Amino acid sequence: LSERLMGPVVAKARERMVIATKFGHTEYESPLAHLGPGGSRTYIRASIDQSLERLQTDFIDLYQHHTPDPRVPIEETLEALNELIEEGKVRHIGHSNYTAEQARRAQSVAKRLGLKTFVSTQNEYNLLARKAENDIIPAAHAMGLGFLPWFPLHNGLFTGKFTKDGGPENSRIMKTRQHLHADAPWDAMDKFAKFCAERRITMLEATIGWLLAVPGMSSVIAGATTVVQVRENADAAVSWSPTTREFTQIANLFPIKP
Description:
Blueprint: H1 2-13, E1 20-23, H2 41-55, E2 60-65, H3 74-86, E3 90-96, H4 100-113, E4 120-124, H5 136-143, E5 146-150, H6 172-176, H7 178-182, H8 186-199, H9 203-213, H10 227-239, H11 244-253
Helix pairs in contact: 1-2, 2-3, 4-5, 9-10
């Protein structure tokens, strides 16, 4: 759906855009499931053609494997993706939700076969979910992969619109994911809100600014449901950067959970 919605926009200004999309989510039933597993050559070739049609473009800048697929050898996935690069349908390839071990194996296989390898990884990472710092982030940094954190605002919790007493009634958290609100460390959140107020910045600006200051971060994947939110996210990416001391202060408020 997001590709179809973006298609008319892409068609009008393709040269000004870097388009990234994904294929092969193993947790959801795909309309292409009859073609085989999401990491298979047949599935990948059908998937890219449909994405190109929906996006109204003839190439994707970054084509990403959504989730590891244990049903398919990584050799087959990489070979299929390299075919797309050779055909000009894809410029670069990335992966999502890979562990450090899976990322290293993919790089090793690509090197052994003389193939172009993944250039980026997408993984969950935010101030309340920092386990990636012990696994995939250092691995990605060592391999020269760009890191794209998803769920950066913890489903909107770090937009500054929530307190321990609640938040917008029409928000996803309050409607279907109340556990995220109930489980939040509100003492730390309140201290973070005070930190932001002292600097006259929003919690959104501080959160995205902190994430982008983490070594190896390429961008931040922040969802939005309105045009205003899209603009706020974009503005936050360039409006504030923490000093080394401020970066540490924020990190200390939200230590890595065991």
